[in-house]
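Researcher: I'm preparing a figure for a lab meeting and need a structural model of a single chain. I don't have an experimental structure, so a prediction will have to do for now. The sequence is pasted below. Please return the structure as tokens so I can convert it later.
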Amino acid sequence: MGDFLDRLGRAFSFIGEAVRMGFRDTGILIPSALSLVAQFAYVAIIFLVLSITGSLWLIGMDSEDVERLRATGRFLREGPGAALERTISEEVEWQASLTEEVEAATARGDDPQELIDRRRLEREEERAAAAAERERRREAQTGRRYWQAVFSGGGVFGALLISYIFSAMTVSLVHDHLCGKSAHVGKAARVVMRRFGSLVLLAVVSTIISVLAGAARGKKGSENAVGAIVAGIIESIWTVASFLILPGMVIHRLSLWQGLTRAKEIASKNLLVVAVGEVAVGLVANFIALAGVMAGMLAGFFTWRALPHPFYIPVGVTGVIALVAISFAMFVRHAYYTCLYLNAVETAKLGRRAPARGPLAAALA
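Model: Understood. Here is the structure written out token by token.
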């Protein structure tokens, strides 16, 4: 138990060194930020094309979902005050109409309470009918589920490929930094393009695992819980494996199979370090991302107080700060696994005399 706690403390120590690496050379954070921007643009382009071609059903959306998105857009442009005013205005109009009908019923000698109850019941029935119609349309799309699944798989593949491209750039930059070389984004991009085929294969395998895991989680019945647990374990193992495969592809030009074999060797010989490091990196990365999002929301709130219109300005301030924080969190994870990979390779060649690189120096000393 004491050894485990000691390793855990050391893991946090070298992750701290990884964080300091990012502050010393902020240029190596660029691919992580570009990855988030590219992912957002990827989703936006897909949605725009589907919207123009009338194919939003491929992502399970109908006309009412689109209307809700438009309402969200109006909310961002006009701010929460205008949206609240619109809601209040609609309610006031309905109440005014009801009041007129009550007055007319009273003048005729009818029971006004009966009229009020009937109108409220009609309103509830309209809402229930609209909800039932939405459900009916979704059930009617059962025949389209095959194409939705195909499109979903393709979308996941594209997102993973984008992620792996920029992750590989981060690995290249971290390697150059640790070797005392100048870390340039352009050079890293050229290195990654020479490994593009291997990255495509990695994205294909990851897509298959992701789709199968999603299908296991989506099963109904008593087996659903077991399937979800197994799917989560498989995805976690593959995520760690991919973090160790990428450095082999980028630094040593390994194929997917060679990279997977080396990742397996590294994990088997450094199981405790990998396990503790994954827990520690996850905690630290999540903390950085959460702190950044909260700081962004706070900054956005104060910006909104000072400049409430247009509302997308404070939203933009929140987004930029959150982007920086999440990019930093992503970098810390890649820096850790790149250093772990390099140290494991050197240790395999030189034994215990192998020098630890960068963040791993504090943990493996």
